[in-house]
Structures are given as structure tokens and as C-alpha cells.
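Anyone able to model this chain together with 2-phosphoglycolic acid?
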Amino acid sequence: VRMLQDEVGLPLLEQIGKRIYLTDVGGDLLAVCTDWLETWARFEQQVADRKGLKQGRLRIAVVTTSEYFMPRLLGPFCARYPGVDVSMEVVNRDRLLERLSRNEDDLYVMGVPPEDWEIHSEPLIENPLVVVGPASHPLAGRRQIPFAELGGEVFLLREQGSGTRIAVERLFRERGTPLRVKMELGSNEAIKQAVAGGLGLAILSRSALTASGGGGELAELNVRGFPIRRHWYLVRPKGKQLSVVAQTFLGFLQDHIGLLEPYA
Ligand code: PGA
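re: yes, here you go
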């Protein structure tokens, strides 16, 4: 650090009490180094591509709810292409859009692709939305429950920025039914536990239920019009030049889509 500081000619770090902070110049230098590492990684990938090698780094970013199925592909993919390093970011829809707008990854998976963005998106597997409640709930044994009756229930909602939340809010708005929110929770798992604990109902992607199930404590309610049919989409910026590794992954995904279907 001292050598770097001598080279730059200004302090890079400052100590306040027991903590050490970056100075403004230190922060600028960090940004330059991060950019440089990115540029170098891209260069390495271009070299591997020119050699036609299926090796290098694959960066995928997926929305939280697709963590229930996307990682399933990685085992067989990595076994087939041991030279590929995979990183999979799992973030909610808002964070994913930030990454997409900065072109940080090769491919994205989300349930609600943004309208009016310059993107290429293709449906992957189904992403049905279902209503869940505790198995002991009075609605759990009924059939063909009218949607309007959901207006009399309280719901647990995902956090702001979640694609599931956007879909749920849109649904209640379109049906003209009030959505009474009991609590916001930051993950599907927390919502499932809170529903099982009797805090309220929730509308979730069925993918969040099929993988781990509800351990018998959760019931999918038979509400008229449900499941709501939607899809998971594979998204990338329009015109993005995919690396050989990313193209290889796309081909693998198409050939192995059957691995994901049980989670829809
Ligand atoms: P989420 O996204 O995990 O951010 O709720 C799910 C979706 O887009 O359907």
C-alpha cells in the first residue's frame, strides 16, 4: 500500500479511531482497478473464444425465485464442461435489472422482463402463480373459491423490487379486489414459514413450493382462475455478442430443459 501511495502521491487510506477508510483518491483507484480486472477478464474470454475453447467464465444472474431450479443445471453443465467457471448471482428483480442495465452478466433469468427495454427474451419453462395457505385454513378444503373472497384475507408480500410482488399487486388491481397486506418479508422461504405459522395467505410462484414442498404444513388453495399461467424468461441485452461459453450454456439449456420442468 505504501508503494502504491508513493506512486500516486496522495494518501489512499485514512484511519479514524480503529477503522480504516478509503480516501476519495483511494476510492477512485479501487474503481480503476475493478474496471481493469473486468477488461482483463473480457480479454481473456475473447482469447479463449478465438481459440474456440469451451472454457472461461460464465456469468448468470437469476431472480430469487428461480434459485429453486436454475442451480439444478449447474452440476451436469460443469461436469460436461470442467473448464468453465460459473458464477450465478441470485438477486431480486430490481437488482437484476440494475445488473442487466450495466451489462454485467452473460444471461439473465426472470419472471417479468421489463417492457420497452432493448432486450431479447425467450420463455424457458412455466412459472404458475398459486395461492398458498396453512393446511389448517378453512379455505384449504374448499373448491372453486371466488377470487373476491381473497379480499377478506390478509396476505404476506415479498419486498419492494420483487417480481412476484409486482405480479400479485397487478393481479389484485386488475380484479378490483383490495389487497390487505399483513407483512412484507424478504424471501420466499420466510413467507412460507410465516404462512405455515398462520400469519396469512400468500401468492407465490409454484417453483417455490415444488422444490422443497411445504412439509405438509402448506396447502395450495383452489381459487377460481388459478394457477395463473406465466413463464420464466431467459433474457439478454439485444445485440449482445455472446461468448462461446455463453452460447454453449444456451445450447445445453435447450437440450436439458427437461431437468427444469419438474420445478414448474
Ligand atoms: P422475484 O422474481 O424472485 O424478484 O420475486 C420472481 C419473478 O420475476 O417472477
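The CA atoms of residues 107 and 250 lie 9 Å apart.
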